[in-house]
Amino acid sequence: MAQRQRAGRRRGQSALHRAVQGAGPVSVIEGRDPATGQVLRAEIDGEGIVAVHRLAARDPGLPWLIPGLIDLQVNGYGGFDVNGADASPDAVASITHLLAGRGVTTWVPTIITGTEEAITASLRAVEDARRADPVVAAAIPFAHVEGPFLSGEDGPRGAHDLAQIRPVDAAEVARWAGHGPLGYVTVSPHTEGAPAQIAAIVASGVRVALGHTHASPAQLQAAADAGATLSTHLGNGIFATLPRHPNPIWTQLADDRLTAGLIGDGHHLPADTLTAMARAKGPGRSFLASDSVALAGSAPGRYHQPVGGDVELHPDGRLTMADSPLLAGSGVNLAEVVAFVLTHTPLGLPTVVEMACATPARIIGDARIGRVQAGARADLVLLDEQGRVVDVLRQGVRP
Question: The Amidohydrolase-related domain covers which part of the protein (predicted)?
Fold first, then answer.
């Protein structure tokens, strides 16, 4: 991965010389607008964009200028984890800085199924990292807890610990929220009391996503009626074989109240499946996520993880449970997801930017990110023609 990134940077050096200018209090970055091809010149003062000018000239030699990438589902990266005994403020900060260097300037730590004590310990690590460093605080809006209120069935449960699976419990979620910045929780609404519990969670200010589920269409619709607004990695965390119809994928694709996360690493969803899902959801109702784990970027081989047990990272980047075809998260970052989707689907750069920047920013609810406009934070990325990251500004400076 590092070799590919270095090669991409070498190819972009001449463009960079012209794209980034100035060393004083106001700097300038230029790149092409993905929507029009026009040259954009963004003026930066401190950590913010103060002006964006559209130039009449077109320059195909310039890289594309897009907002910083926003990943709503990161379990770990670069050998650091937000789960288990290794979760710490230093780990959270290290992931923040590593991801920023790859173009991911905003990310959501994802805490998986565990005991209540383990979940709250991870939330405290996120909170302490944010308090210790304003750069980290700006990069992490909140945390996501994926589980433990999931399906206990093999397949939908994925790599989550069966011993810790339990029914949706709004009171437990309220206790979590006292330990750190909880933004949303992923649940399976297959139990009888799930709608009432979901409504209580939403009323407390925490979003609810549906995922890792064998719930019926009626149960999924009842969950959306109760206030669920997201689908976690749609098409994954589900039985390998489903009825032709109805099934949980069709129900979530059809419900405009649900904005769906899609893992675009080429392993979780085939390119044509991802394309069809994004088109079915329509503009603004799907987003790209990495679902990266601590092993992301590591060498192929078998590993034992403190959370998840024995796994195998294959040469093609596919990460599975050991001796099983079941996926155990992904081994890529969101920038690699963007490059894969751009080169393997017909969705096009404007749509991909919407899915990796604008839609996640809307879900987070922060107008300062996910756009290249005056008043936005200067989280900016330059991409080459293959969608590879050429350069990054995070909060106005190179990470």
Answer: 65-396
Residue 60 pLDDT: 86
| pLDDT digit string, tens, across residues 155-192 | 999 889 999 999 999 999 999 999 999 999 999 999 99
Tokens at 184, concatenated:
């949303």
- Known binding-site positions for substrate: 159, 236-237, 244, 268, 327-329
Per-residue 3-state assignment (H helix, E strand, C coil) for the chain: CHHHHHHHHHHCHHHHHHHEECCCCEEEEEEECCCCCCEEEEEEECCEEEEEEEECCCCCCCCEEEECEEEEEECEECCEECCHHHCCHHHHHHHHHHHHHCCEEEEEEEEECCCHHHHHHHHHHHHHHHHHCHHHHHHCCCEEEECCCCCCCCCCCCCCCHHHCCCCCHHHHHHHHCCCCEEEEEECCCCCCHHHHHHHHHHCCCEEEECCCCCCHHHHHHHHHCCCCEECCCCCCCCCCCCCCCCHHHHHHHCCCCEEEEECCCCCCCHHHHHHHHHHHCCCCEEEECCECCCCCCCCEEEEECCCEEEEECCCCCEEECCCCCECCECCCHHHHHHHHHHHCCCCHHHHHHHHHHHHHHHHCCCCCCCCCCCCECCEEEECCCCCEEEEEECCECC
359/17 Cα distance (integer angstroms) = 31
In the predicted model, residues of the chain with pLDDT beneath 70 are 1-26, 307-308
Q: Has 291 been annotated as catalytic?
A: yes
Annotated binding site: which residue ranges?
146, 159, 212, 233, 236-237, 244, 268, 327-329
Catalytic residue (one of 71, 291, 379, 391): 291
CA 361-96-391 angle, to 5 degrees, is 75
Amino acid symbol at 56? A
Q: List binding-site positions for Zn(2+).
A: 146, 212, 233
Q: What is the pLDDT of residue 156?
A: 95
Tell me how far apart the alpha carbons of residues 267 and 212 are, in angstroms, rounded to a whole number: 17
d(CA 379, CA 286): 21
